[in-house]
Amino acid sequence: MRLHLSLFFKSLSARLLLLTLIWVSFIVTSIGYTMMLNWKLESTSAATNIIGDIRYHVFRTALFVQPHYPARDFTNEVRAVDAGLALLQKGDTWRPLWVPETAEIRAHLETIDKAWRTEVLPKLQNARRDGKPVAMQNVNYYVEELSSFSGDIDRYRAHFLWELRYLQGLLIVLAIGSLFAIMALLLRWVIRPLGRLGDAINRLSSGDLNARTEVSSEDEIGEIARGFNHMAARLKDSHDNLEQKVAEKTASVEEKNSHLAQLYEMTSYFTQRRSLDDLVEGFVSRIMRQAEADGCTLQLLCGRDDSMQLLTAEGLPVELVKAVNDLPSDSSLIVSVLQKTYPVCFHLTELEEPLAIQFAQGGFNTAYSFQIRSTSGDLGIFTLFYRTSPHLSTQVIRLLENFVTHFGVAISSNRLVERDRQFAVIQERQLLAQGLHDSIAQALSFLNLQVQFLSDAIRTNDVGLRDESLSAIRTGVQECYEDVRELLLNFRERLHKEGFIEGVRTVINRFEAQSRMNARLRVGGRGPELTPRQKLQVVFIIQEALSNVRKHSQAENVDIRIDNNADLVVTITDDGVGIDDELVKKRKGQHVGLSIMAERASRIGAEVEVSRVTPAGGTRVVLRLKEDARHE
Questions:
Q1: Among 406, 418, 403, which residue's Cα sits nearest to residue 374?
Q2: Phi-psi region of 131 (alpha: psi -120 to 50; beta: other; left: phi over 0)
């Protein structure tokens, strides 16, 4: 308890709060006592007024004893005197009216009340009843008693007046004294400590780092003073060691800049298109130089069985390289590295694994293994070997980890590029095979059949069949030549240097020159431009449709209409023999020309419909590229 009180009074805010509480309590008590004295003075003054009223009504009662005054007036005056005496007996707090509670004054009041009821009032009532004048000496005597009672109250009230004056004088003295006391306490507790603290702050702001302030208390200002002294000491220490700290920060910044430069160099190296061997060679040479390692190995997962392939090894003897290459992918060392999400440090001399023992015997002491990862998963492991036990800082390890991460991204990108290249080659080969099958293969099959006919004609010496076969062979070779030329033109077709309509006109002009047919182009609409990819595929589809017209339709006229509105609609109509719908349905998926058009249309989100124009003949090919597919 004493400890809590001691801590309480050490607090400046607690002391000021207590001082304020005492001062307010004193003021409230003084005001309350003064109000009480004023109330007593006011109530005793009201009592003297009531006594004066009683004297007045006693004289009027004596006057109304005369027979010529109405009895009602006499009765009213008697009631007024009775009411006044009763009010003096009870008092009235809210009026206020109060008779002092001293024994002398209370006895005097009882005497006056008894004299009125037993002596004065009966005589007045008898005189009124008998119609005789009252003896005024009795009335005057009673009135003098009332005046004497009023004098007693006035003397008692004079005591309160002097007490009130003494209290007011005491309040003035205490107010002045307490003002000086509060000023002295504030000067001691607040003003002087703050002045010393302000002086120390001014000296510190002027450059005096040795500025300190006196701590003379345990309160809040004392805490502030101790905090200022501590701050000044730290500031002086910082100033004295500023050069050293600047040098340390400069070295740290230079190290970070060096790491950023190396990371930028590595990133720039990986962003260029390189072969896998070049990527591995550049990565290993840079990271070996940065890590100052004595050796390294780089292993990648390959194949469906996730076998580990050693791509390169630097600074290691042949026997250690062979041991790493023969290490199975389910080895505990490899599994422990792949399972971690952070680089793993191995102290080779402390491990019981055969590979670790073999490296320790070869003079290597420490190894750091990093996981090579990409978004698709684990790619491999990169390990640095040291003959000593180097202490790699956290920044260096993070830098090496970033190098390995960028290498993993580069490996994934290289594989994706190679996969896309192979896929593009396969697609081109497939298109080439489809074109050959739909044109040259059929022509060669026809020529093979005609050669058999020619052989039979020569053997049987059938001159007509021989000439017919030779003519058919000559026609087939010409058509085969035209098909080969058309295929070559298809694979060389490019729309980068000419617009979409110009490319279509080029295809139509070539078609007219080969087929001797009339082709008419009509263009309408002001829809959005096609993308280069859409232009190429649409032109190829038009070219394939015209090729089918040339080969199969036996037409004379071809109408090509392009409506470029919200949807792009290309309609190719000929007046030939017409396509056999039943045969198309039966051989759906086997007709290479139609399959090529459908496949090219699907690449740009379009649809191709092939139908017969009329029962008499004619074929219509409709290519429709909808609005939503044009913006994808």
A1: 406
A2: left
Alpha-helical regions (H) of 314-439 = 318-325, 332-339, 354-361, 394-438
Q: Is 369 helix (H, G, I), strand (E, B) or coil?
A: strand
Q: Write the burial class of residue 194 (CB in 10 Å: 0-12 exposed, 13-18 middle, 19+ buried).
A: middle
Distances (CA, A) of 437 to 430, 485, 591, 631: 10, 15, 10, 34
Q: What are the residues whose beta carbons fall under 8 Å from the beta carbon of 356, sequence distance 6 or more?
A: 333, 346, 348
User: In angstroms, how far is CA 289 from the centroid of its own chain?
Assistant: 41
Phi first, then psi, for residue 151 (nearest 5°) are -65, -40
- The four Cα atoms 519, 524, 529, 533 give a dihedral, to 10 degrees, of -30
For residue 552, give the DSSP letter: I
**Facing residues of 523 across strands?**
562
CA distance 424 to 426: 5
At residue 181, the pLDDT reads 82
387-420, pLDDT tens digit by residue?
888 877 788 888 888 878 877 788 777 777 767 6
Contact 387, 294 (CB under 8 A): yes
Burial of 281 by CB count in 10 Å (0-12 exposed, 13-18 middle, 19+ buried)? middle
CB 34 within 8 A of CB 26: no
Residues in the chain: 632
* CA-angle at 388, arms to 385 and 389, nearest 5°: 90
The region that residue 579 occupies, defined by phi over 0 for left and psi between -120 and 50 for alpha, beta otherwise, is beta
Determine the number of helices (DSSP H) and then strands (DSSP E) in the chain: 21, 10
Which DSSP string corresponds to 440-460?
Answer: HHHHHHHHHHHHHHHHHHHHH
User: Tokens standing for 400?
Assistant: 């090496």
What are the tens digits of pLDDT across the range 469-500? 777 677 767 766 666 665 655 554 444 456 78
Between CA 569 and CA 606 the distance in angstroms is 10
Q: CA angle, corner 61, sides to 57 and 64, nearest 5? A: 135
H helical segments located in 131-241? 136-186, 192-205, 220-240
What's the whole-number mean pLDDT along residues 24-37? 81
The conformational region for residue 440 under phi > 0 = left, psi -120 to 50 = alpha, else beta, is alpha
Distance, CA of 593 to CA of 435 (rounded, Å): 8
DSSP percent split of the chain into helix, strand, coil, nearest 5: 70, 15, 20
d(CA 340, CA 404): 15
- Token pair 């004048």 is at which residue? 133
Locate all alpha helices (DSSP H) within 292-393, ordered by sequence: 318-325, 332-339, 354-361
Q: Which class for 451: exposed (0-12), middle (13-18), buried (19 or more C-beta within 10 A)? A: middle
* Assigned token pair, 275: 């072969």
pTM comes to 0.40
Q: Residues near 17 by Cβ (< 8 Å), separated by ≥ 6?
A: none
